[in-house]
Amino acid sequence: MPTLSPTDRLAIRELCARYYVTTDEQDVDGFMTCWADHDDIRFESVFGTYVGRDAIRAFEDEHVHRGMAVGKRHLLSNVVIRPGETDDTAYVTSYMTVLDVVNVPSIIATAIYRDSKVVRTDDGWKFAYRHMDVDPGFKRLMEATTIPELA
Length: 151
Fold this sequence. Notes:
The protein is α+β, with helices and mostly antiparallel strands. 30% of the residues lie in helices and 39% in strands. It contains 4 helices and 6 strands; from the N terminus they run ααββαββββα.
C-alpha cells in the first residue's frame, strides 16, 4: 500500500498554500508552478472546466486581474491528505474561505476542494486535477451579481 512521509505531507500542504498565495498576489506564473507539466491537467469549478496549461493559465490571468479574485484573500483550512494509487500520487481535500479585503472585510465565499490529485514530479508535488464545489451562499451571490465572469 502506498504511503506518504511527513516530508511529503508538508510539501503537499505547502503546495495548497502556495496555490492561494499566488492567486492573491496576482502571480499567474507562480500559480502555474503549482500545476504538473502535463497536457491533461484539469481544473473544474463554478467558473467552468479548464483542461491543459494554456486554458488554466488563461482562466487564472482573467480571474486575478479582472475577475472575482480581485481584492480577495483566500484562506486554506482543514487539509486532509491521503495516499494515492502509487507512492507518487496523493489526494487532498481542503476548505477554502474567501474574504473581501478591499471593502469592509467580510467572508464572501466558502468552498471545498474535494480529492484534488497531486503528483510527485522532479520539481516536487504538483496538482494534476482540482475540483471545487462552492457552498450555496456563494451561488446565491453569483445569481445576484452582474459581473461578466459569472454570467
